[in-house]
Design a protein that fits this description.
Number of helices: 4
Shape: globular
Strand order of the largest sheet: 3-2-1-4-5
Number of domains: 1
Structural class: alpha/beta
Largest sheet: 5 strands, mixed
CATH superfamily: YqgF/RNase H-like domain
Radius of gyration: 14 Å
């Protein structure tokens, strides 16, 4: 079956989450600091192989009116690189996931500097969990 890798793709950082083997639970994994398409693609190819990933789910940032925003083009451009390297990429609506992740970390009492380092991987886990929940239905 293989695990699923969740990504919250930003301009400078990519939040990373992984599912369990049964594809029921998403867990925050890491925050990757972007370098460039080549090194970034090689990193995710290696991570996918190491973790036994079947495919990737990337959050696609829609505007509140349902249209795709400018950041969506950047996410797709990056994911096109992953697909060209042989990784299957699927997309889910990621509206408000970063805000939800920040809210959860605030509720947990996390300091601002620690939140900055954690919010991207928590957002990736929320993106991935929404996909896993859809699979379960």
């Amino acid at each position: 079956m293989g695990r699923v890798l969740g990504l919250d793709v930003g301009d400078r950082r990519i939040g990373v989450a992984l599912s369990d083997e049964g594809r029921r639970i998403a867990s925050p994994h890491s925050v990757y600091q972007r370098v460039g398409y080549g090194p970034d693609t090689r990193y995710f190819l290696a991570l996918a192989k190491e973790q036994g990933v079947a495919y990737i789910v990337a959050g696609l940032p829609y505007n509140m009116d349902g249209s795709l925003g400018g950041q969506a083009d950047k996410v797709r451009a990056f994911c096109d690189q992953l697909a060209a390297a042989g990784l299957e990429v699927r997309y889910v609506d990621e509206r408000l996931t970063t805000r939800a992740a920040e809210g959860a970390l605030l509720e947990g009492g996390m300091r601002r500097d620690a939140r900055r380092d954690t919010v991207d991987k928590v957002a990736a886990a929320l993106i991935l969990q929404s996909h896993l929940d859809q699979l379960a239905r």
